[in-house]
User: Which sequence fits this backbone?
């Protein structure tokens, strides 16, 4: 099976799939996180958000680009000065 090719203002880009699709069980308040190693222009962000809104409605989406990473540290652990288990 050939990998799909996507074209944008930078030219064609190969789409790499990380694995098979899985069914997710969403809970109220869950947020999807979409991350990419490269910087996305503002127009790409808007295009993704518009497509997401059409497909997913009011399910929240966070887009992280440019190789940024996002994590959470439990407030209780920080206040007590201890590391996570």
Assistant:
């Amino acid at each position: 099976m050939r990998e799909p090719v996507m074209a944008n203002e930078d030219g064609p880009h190969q789409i790499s799939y990380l694995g098979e699709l899985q069914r997710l069980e969403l809970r109220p308040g869950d947020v999807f996180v979409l991350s990419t190693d490269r910087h996305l222009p503002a127009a790409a962000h808007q295009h993704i958000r518009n497509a997401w809104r059409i497909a997913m409605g009011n399910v929240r989406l966070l887009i992280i680009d440019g190789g940024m990473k996002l994590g959470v540290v439990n407030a209780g652990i920080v206040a007590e000065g201890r590391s996570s288990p």
